[in-house]
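My current task is to audit a protein record that another person submitted. Alongside the sequence sits a line of tokens, each denoting a local backbone shape. Where you disagree with what is written, explain briefly why. This is what I was given:
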Amino acid sequence: MQTIEHLRELFRYNDWANRRMVAAVRDAENNRSRQILAHILVTENEYYERLYGKDSTGFDFWPELSIAECSELARTNASRFEELLAGFDDEGLDIKAKYRTSEGIAYENTYRELLTHVLLHSSIHRGNIMLKLRESGVAPPAIDYIIYLRETK
């Protein structure tokens, strides 16, 4: 499988996992979990913007969003990344994006690197949400990649 095909599949998984987390956090009414979920989703959105050179200087990666706002942002992010990846081939992933971090520091990374970061960052923080849910006595959803494959293939 080519990298682009694999990234497309991983972003479909990312959407599936995010939607499950939105539902779990909505049902749990756990404020810290909602804050982490908002962080995941605004970060995904901001990195999408960085692919196009956005200056993130001063950006707040920890906004207060309602669960409805999180749900809408999850749908928007999934759509934007799906559309982006539909227009790429493997060579396109080596295009470099220049952007500024929230601290105003200039960096340059390939699309491949930035897209991989989005997926790993989201996965890490979904794990944080799962821990918070468990700590509050709520069973978190099953969001393992292999479960996604079993349910969707």
Q: What stands out?
A: The helical segments are 3-28, 31-50, 67-86, 111-135, 145-152. The beta strands are 96-100, 106-110. The CA atoms of residues 30 and 133 lie 7 Å apart. The chain is about 65% helix and 5% strand.
